[in-house]
Design brief:
Blueprint lengths: L1 E2 L7 E2 L2 E5 L3 H13 L3 E5 L6 H8 L7 E4 L2 E4 L1 H10 L5
Parallel strand pairs: 3-4
Antiparallel strand pairs: 1-2, 3-5, 5-6
């Protein structure tokens, strides 16, 4: 774990992206790697199955699903909303 100053002293931990390789997943990976270099991408059919994804996130979940540290943040839109609310873009 490392701490970076993003105007609010947010503790940064590894960011995990569960990806199926679609364009939204690629955008998430690109953006999050620019913000924090500690990004791990798990790929569908390489690191997990669709059945495991549905069991973990629900059948309605869309790709990508993102966790920051130990906290699941949800889809890219939900993650960006969280980061914006935390002042990480200001």
């Amino acid at each position: 774990m490392r701490v970076i100053d993003v105007k609010t002293n947010i503790q940064k931990m590894q960011t995990i992206i569960y990806s199926n390789g679609n364009q939204e997943c690629e955008r998430a990976e690109s953006l999050l790697m620019r913000i924090d270099k500690d990004v791990k991408v798990y790929q569908l059919d390489e690191d997990f199955t669709e059945k495991q994804f549905n069991a973990e996130f629900g059948v309605e979940a869309e790709y990508p699903q993102i966790s920051i540290g130990f906290n699941h943040r949800g889809s890219l839109k939900e993650t960006l909303n969280f980061m914006n609310n935390q002042g990480m873009f200001s």
